[in-house]
Design a protein that fits this description.
ribonucleoprotein; S23 ribosomal protein family protein; mainly alpha; de novo design (two linked rop proteins); 0% strand; 4 helices; 23S_rRNA_IVS_sf; ribosomal protein; 116 residues; 23S_rRNA-intervening_sequence
Amino acid sequence: MASFEKLQVYQRAIDFSYKIYRLTENWPKTETFGLTSQLRRAAVSISLNIAEGSSRSRKDFSHFLTISRGSCYECIPLLAIATKLKYLTNEDYKTCYTEVEALAKMINGLRNSLDL
């Protein structure tokens, strides 16, 4: 097991990606290359940047964590648009929003712990 796989934030990011894939699987086919793809890519990017950054220097890892946190915030307007279009329920929106906020805080905490 790679060291990043032991990080709770990484595991939570994987769970979030899974949730997004499940929520988007029945969205209209017209969104396959639009909103569906953008939201999935943003969600997956959170864990990918944690993984890639962990194999680099502390300074680089910090940079990758910043990108990962940005991917969290990229999800928010995509979720809002999906909710306005009635692809997501308000409950699913709130659940995802809360999870994205929690992930962003965890990423920030990890970044701050790097002692740069």
